[in-house]
TrEMBL record:
All copies of domain HTH cro/C1-type, residue ranges: 21-50
Classification via SUPFAM superfamilies: lambda repressor-like DNA-binding domains
Protein name per Swiss-Prot or TrEMBL: Cytoskeleton protein RodZ
InterPro entries the record matches: Bact_Cytoskel_RodZ (IPR050400), Cro/C1-type_HTH (IPR001387), Lambda_DNA-bd_dom_sf (IPR010982), RodZ-like_C (IPR025194)
PROSITE patterns membership: HTH_CROC1
Region (Disordered): 144-238
An example molecular function term from Gene Ontology annotations: DNA binding
Gene3D superfamilies per record: lambda repressor-like DNA-binding domains
Amino acid sequence: MNREQNEERQAEIAQTPGEMLRAAREQLGYSQKDIANRLRLRLSVINDIEDNRFEQAQLATFTRGYVRSYAKYVGVDEKSILALLDQYGHAQPQEQEMQSFSRRTKREAHDSRIMGLTWILAAVFLGLTAVWWWQSLQVQPSTHKESTVKAEVSAPANEKDSNYVSTLEENGAATVTKADTSPSSAAVAQPESANTSSQSNTSAASETAASSEPATSNQSIANQADTSATEAKPVDVQTPAAEETVAVVPDLQLTFSGDCWIDIKDANGKRLETGIKKAGDKLDLDGKAPFKIVLGAPGVVKMNYQGQPVDLSKYPAGRVARFKLPQ
């Protein structure tokens, strides 16, 4: 009953939230310091509330909570004091502003994550493009070198073959000339002996027969020489080509049965080959030994060093193999 009377009396006297709380505090005999200690607030905050300075920075966010706690402690109806606070002009704009700020902060954070992901994807794309371009530059010089080596090898082989054929032709011509000359000498000797042993009446007939016989022999010998030279040519021409093939065996020969990344350097540090090779690719490489070799998938590679097979079974499949040749 006394509390209702106090509230009615306070409503008649007090017109503002601060005055109402101050009147209730003084009626109970509390000082501002007592209220500040009890609510665990600074004394300046209690003073600002009682003076209706609600727009102060330290009260802007928590004004309603402070006023509610103060009213509860001094026995003032919370709903009444909050309604009076709203009438006084301090409603809840701060809460709306805080919600709007929080929503904007979340949106900005989301946009920042999207932009960050976009930049990362762009960087990865540029990196992959640069790697592809670099590997293309490395593969082109190697292909050009292989073509040059093959052209240089084929040119000497053809030159040696043509020289050998010319030699055979010269030898065949010399053989024919010699065969033609020898029967002529025999033809001269035979008529002379015939003239010495025969009579004068039969000498002319004997000379005619002797002359025809050597001519026939000359023609037969020349035909045999031509035939033997012709038969010997194909066999002898093929022999230098076979020897030349053995002489140009490359230092390294690689055959791939699957995709494999490789990197091969010689003793001078010159990169002979690098990049990804596909199934069915073959490489012939020359350089100064020892060679530094890196194979991404040794299980799909067959390798020969100076014509001899290299055992790659000791390197586990699926792991990078690094070694030198000769070891």
